[in-house]
Structure formats: structure tokens, C-alpha cells
Amino acid sequence: MARGRERNMGRGLGRGLDDAGGAGLLGSVVAGAVIGAAGLGWWLLSEAERRRAQGRQQHNLRLGRLQSGGNPLDPLPSSQDHPLEERELHRKVQELNQAIEAVRRQLEQLQPQG
Questions:
Q1: What is the CA radius of gyration of the chain?
Q2: Which of 2, 13, 42, 55 has the fewest CB atoms within 10 Å distance of its CB?
Q3: CB 94 within 8 A of CB 112
Q4: Are 80 and 62 in contact (CB under 8 A)?
Q5: Residues 63, 76: contact at Cβ < 8 Å?
Q6: Using CA atoms, how far apart are residues 40 and 26, in angstroms rounded to an integer?
Q7: Mean pLDDT within 2-20
Q8: pLDDT digit string (tens) for 34-84?
Q9: Rounded CA gap, 71 and 78, in Å?
Q10: Per-domain residue ranges of the chain
């Protein structure tokens, strides 16, 4: 009969640990959700502020054009206005791709043929 009590006590103790572990897990999940929601909220606010600042900048650029006698509805400068820079960037990308390919070939030669 003493063994029966020990078994029940052992089960009760184990169940208590499971409940405590479950509560700890639940607390961690809730804390993670709160932190995630806070991070998402911060990101959304920063994106809204970035868009607002970008809109102000475009507004100021158009105002400057209007004051200088230009057409404020003309498109803003883009990469098409700088074809030389775009060609230079393309050339550099090609050089990097060639260098990567050369390193890949060297690595293939170093691998044992099996």
C-alpha cells in the first residue's frame, strides 16, 4: 500500500512539472507574440514615415520646378537620365560574375575525383 502512495505522489509531482512547463511554454508564446506584434507595429510606422518623407521630398522637388518656371508634372529624374552609370554598373556585375565563375572552376579542380 505504501508503494501505491509513492506511485500516486510521483504522478502528482510529474503532473505538476508538466503544468509548470506548459505554463512556461504558454508564457513564452505570449511574450513572443507581444514582441512580434511590437516589432511589426514599429516596422509599419517606420514604413509610413519613410513614405511620408518621400512624398514631402517629391512635393518639394515639384515646388522647386514650379518656382523655376518648369512643369511640375514632368517625371522626376530616374536611372534613364544616367545611362553611363547604369552601363558602368552592368560592366562591374559582369566582371564579378566572371570572377565568381573562375573561383568555381578552381574549386572544382581542387575537389578529389571520386
A1: 32
A2: 2
A3: no
A4: no
A5: no
A6: 21
A7: 51
A8: 998 999 999 999 999 999 999 998 888 878 777 777 666 666 555 455 666
A9: 17
A10: 1-75, 77-114
